[in-house]
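If your schedule permits, I should be very grateful for your opinion on a structural question. Thank you for your consideration; the sequence and its tokens are set out here:

===
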Amino acid sequence: MRSIWVSVAVSLLLVACAGTGQLSANTESIDFSLDPISFQNSGIGFLTPVAATGQEADRVGLAQAFADSLATQRTQLHVVRLAEVLSAVNRADLSLQYKRMVDDYQATGIMERTTLKKVGEVCGARYLGLLGLAKFSQNTNKRFGIGGLRLFDTKQASIRLSWQIWDSQSGAIAWEGSDEIHYAYDTSRERPVNFGFVAEQAATNLIAELPFLATAPVQLSSTAGSQ
């Protein structure tokens, strides 16, 4: 009888400890020419992300996660979401040119400058963000059970992605970064780690790498210098 109660006590203790997550990330970035003043004043729009084979269904969710995080963390920055960019492109009859630009990018790594500039103009943002999803995976490892009863598992998820910010006026890559995240936690629930969670974590990491003004620039009146 005592051994049964000991087992029950251990089980309850393990279940109580379950749910603590462990996250590791490898974040890298290079700032080529992204001026923080221009970036803040000119805004950023999101292009259709590129994705590895089998990951295409996650492209919209990835763009939403980054746009949401950017709009929340940098409230002074004008953010044009993917749906808004696509709507503007279609209204301007640029859909075929846009498709060709994105297709050519996947073959060459280059965004055709003329179309890029037109997209920036119609969506109202000088800078255009292109996300690339290289990998997303989920799995479950059985961790602990008693008498055939499974008490909790380890849920895991990994994501690897890149983010380029293009200057639509110059046709140059102004900034680029990449992040690889591994997340795991113990739980008694059946629900896996969802895509949105790790995508938001990656967005937070990469947004922290962007050059931003500490405060908004002060606008002086025309008479300030004469007083």
Q: What stands out?
A: The helical segments are 2-17, 36-42, 59-73, 82-91, 95-108, 113-123, 195-207. Residues 21-213 form a domain with the Rossmann fold fold (CATH 3.40.50.10610). The chain has a mean pLDDT of 82. The two ends are 90 Å apart (CA to CA).
